[in-house]
Backbone:
């Protein structure tokens, strides 16, 4: 029987350690559980640190946009407010506009949650549609929401030109919330088959979104507060267009 000394074992281990080549990387992926745990732990720590950096940059950008009322904060201003460096900024974002898109996405996620709560709290289809429309209009009616939303509303075209798919996806998420409600209304009113009803409900939701957000963008283009009477008229108009009691 061949005997292995400590030196032989160390030599074999040294030969087995990945050297960075594709072949050795493949061997490492099937290596010991302890190795994988060590890698996972290191990556988890780094990921948590990076997520914290991204959150700080997004919050700082949002605060600068809110403070200035413009969608053009400088990278230097953002990293100073975040307490980070330019290197940290460009580790996560290829440009300032990419960060602005992340800020927009964060804002859409918050509005999405608000609209979902309004729909969930509604006791009827009419109340759900009303709550959804009013929730969007509140972005222009509430002074705090208006101050936060104005820079994005007036600069939407520029962001949409640079990132058309991303901006469209953000808007589609908001419209999608009301689609199931409109689908039920279509089914009850028209007795259409499910597939046709779903397609029409989706188009209805897009039209409602365009109507509501158009009001928000037009109102926020001016410094004067939006009229709640005009907003109430828009809600009534939307309900009548859907054949709902207004």
Residues:
């Amino acid at each position: 029987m061949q005997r292995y000394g400590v030196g032989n074992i160390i030599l074999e281990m040294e030969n087995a350690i990945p050297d960075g080549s594709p072949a050795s990387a493949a061997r490492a992926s099937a290596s010991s559980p302890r190795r994988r745990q060590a890698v996972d732990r290191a990556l988890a720590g780094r990921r948590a640190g990076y997520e914290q950096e991204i959150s700080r940059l997004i919050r700082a950008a949002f605060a600068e946009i809110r403070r200035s009322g413009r969608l053009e904060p400088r990278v230097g201003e953002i990293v100073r407010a975040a307490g980070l460096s330019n290197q940290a900024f460009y580790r996560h974002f290829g440009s300032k506009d990419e960060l602005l898109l992340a800020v927009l996405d964060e804002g859409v996620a918050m509005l999405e949650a608000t609209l979902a709560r309004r729909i969930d709290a509604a006791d009827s289809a009419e109340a759900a549609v009303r709550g959804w429309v009013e929730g969007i209009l509140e972005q222009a009616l509430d002074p705090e929401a208006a101050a936060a939303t104005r820079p994005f509303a007036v600069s939407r075209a520029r962001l949409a030109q640079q990132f058309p798919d991303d901006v469209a996806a953000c808007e589609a998420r908001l419209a999608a919330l009301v689609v199931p409600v409109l689908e039920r209304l279509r089914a009850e009113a028209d007795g259409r088959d499910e597939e046709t009803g779903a397609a029409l409900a989706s188009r209805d939701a897009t039209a409602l979104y365009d109507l509501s957000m158009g009001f928000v963008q037009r109102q926020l283009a001016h410094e004067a507060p939006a009229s709640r009477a005009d907003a109430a008229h828009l809600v009534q108009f939307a309900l009548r267009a859907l054949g709902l009691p207004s």
Residues 21-94 form one domain. DSSP finds 13 helices and no strands in the chain.
